[in-house]
Structures are given as structure tokens and as C-alpha cells.
Amino acid sequence: MNGNNSINMNIDNAAKVLKELGHPTRLALFRILVKGGYEGVAVGQLQEELQVPGSTLSHHISALVSAGIISQRREGRVLYCVPDYQLLQGLVHFLQDQCCSAQRPKIEIEP
Q1: N vs C: which end of the chain shows fewer Cβ within 10 Å?
Q2: Is the distance from CB of 26 to CB of 65 less than 8 angstroms?
Q3: pLDDT tens digits for 19-32?
């Protein structure tokens, strides 16, 4: 699922994204990335902020990359992680898409 697929978010894609974000470390990692913006956040900075071993961080990053939730970019020796904002917006839209659609309209009766 990359940014282009976020437009076609369906229940299976949404469940996969939510499953991967359902782990506390991955959710914390993703929140740091969202806060970091479109340039991404260096893996070293993520490790420093999360205070987790490198192998643990690598495992969580791999899970998010394989689900298409984040991508990685290398600049020299520095590896950056970047969230897929389009996917995030697609997920939010999917979750809110039918908001209140089953709600019955209020009928006011005058006395």
C-alpha cells in the first residue's frame, strides 16, 4: 500500500494499517514521524527518542515499511523514515466516510 493506494482504501487495507499501528512502539514511532514532517526523521533520532535497541527499532520499521505506512530515504550514511501522509489521510477518510449516515433526522413536533 503506497500513497497511490490510499485513495482506494478498503476494509482489508485499513485493517492491515491499523494492525501495524496497533503496537505501542510502532504507534509511538509513527507519531514521531508525523511530527517530523515530510522530510522524515533519521533512524538514529528515532532510536534516541524511543530508547529501544537498534534491532528492535529495525523490526518495527520493517513492519511499517512492508505495510506501506512509511518509506525510507538514504542521504549519505543517514537513513530517514518518512510517513505516507496520503495513506494516513485515506485511512482517516475511510474511517469517517459514513459518519452519522445511519442517524435518523430529528423531527421536531410543534405543540
Answers
A1: C
A2: no
A3: 999 999 999 999 99
